[in-house]
Write a structure and sequence with these properties.
The chain has about 325 residues and is of the alpha/beta class. It has 10 helices and 18 strands.
Length: about 325
């Protein structure tokens, strides 16, 4: 089968479209014939974590398709079912942090950038009927990350003010859509005027220039909740625009991992700083119920064929996207 895999060279030089052996499900597993898959920033890191001398690894955590074969003992899934893949492996119930042994589809085991994949049967979840294959294929990881950050960790409530630095990523667009569906007011930031305008069209109440004065552009108003996936480049500005007693949730560090923090100002301000990553199977089901009840659809930036999969990586690496970049497979 055709797949986008990493082998032989460190980094992106080791990425190639290759032929791989078709997988066969063991007991408790299902084989899915994939229709579409989605890229995440995680996929940009894996070629640098997966060693060049290790066997070829198929990348990808997001995917949707049709169940083609089931292993022994599987009763919750049938051949022919239309499913999306929950990329969270071994994290079943909602908890403060992932359990020991938690993994994500796509590393260290094979992922979704292929014509077929084998996953545990419990990770093959019915596809929401209102989503196309493209939309379902790019949904799972980013939507799960957004849901946990927003509701489990951030505890967003209707009427609150949410600040989202760096609008444009798949997770950020889900955060905007989910927050508006929950009745929040949302301010986004971006250096790109085009992305700010796209965010306003998607429902943002205010879109400000990341390079400008945030306080001035927000008319002195501060946010109840900030969800920051950018990192060091925006953290100070995010904290200054958080109300006293407010909360910052962090799940990314694409623009720097290290910050300086004035502890006295922080504890006198009664701020809350929370980390988050991914989510549990319980939260995955909650997320699907939420997007189904509000008929939320992913913002699809651009879809590529498997043959053009490396171009999808380049688009994501260059930060050109607004929403999700994906692969059309079947």
């Amino acid at each position: 089968m055709k797949a986008v895999a990493h082998q032989g060279k460190q980094g992106f030089d080791g990425l190639a479209v290759v032929d791989m052996e078709e997988p066969t499900p063991s007991a408790g597993e299902v084989k899915i014939r994939l229709k579409a898959a989605g890229l995440n920033h995680r996929d940009l890191f894996i070629p640098f974590r997966h060693r060049a001398d290790e066997p070829a690894l198929i990348l990808g955590s997001d995917g949707a398709g049709i169940v083609e074969e089931i292993g022994g003992g599987v009763t919750n899934v049938n051949v022919g079912d239309e499913v999306i893949i929950n990329p969270s492996l071994g994290w079943r119930e909602k908890s403060d942090a992932p359990p020991k042994g938690f993994e994500i589809v796509g590393h260290p085991d094979h992922g979704t950038f292929a014509e077929a994949i084998v996953v545990p049967a419990e990770n093959a979840v019915p596809k929401p009927k209102h989503l196309s294959w493209e939309e379902a294929g790019v949904l799972p990881l980013a939507a799960l990350t957004a849901y946990r950050a927003l509701f489990t960790r951030g505890k967003l409530k209707a009427g609150q003010h949410l600040l989202l630095p760096g609008i444009g990523s798949g997770v950020a667009t889900f955060l905007l859509q989910m927050a508006k569906a929950a009745g929040a007011r949302v301010t986004v930031t971006s250096r790109s005027e085009e992305k700010r305008n796209r965010a306003l069209e998607l429902g943002a109440d205010c879109a400000i220039d990341s390079n400008g004065d945030w306080k001035e552009q927000m008319d002195g108003e501060k946010a109840d909740l900030v969800i920051d996936s950018v990192g060091a480049a925006t953290f100070d500005k995010s904290l200054r625009q958080t109300r006293l007693g407010g909360t910052i949730v962090v799940f990314g560090a694409s623009a720097g991992e290290d910050i300086q923090l004035n502890l006295r100002k922080f504890f006198f301000g009664q701020y809350n700083l929370l980390g988050t990553t991914m989510g549990s199977s319980e939260e995955f089901q909650e997320m699907l119920a939420f997007i189904d009840s509000h008929k939320i659809k992913p913002v699809v930036d651009k879809m590529f064929s498997l043959d053009d999969g490396l171009d999808a990586f380049r688009r994501l690496e260059n930060g050109e996207q607004f929403g999700k970049v994906g692969l059309l497979i079947g």
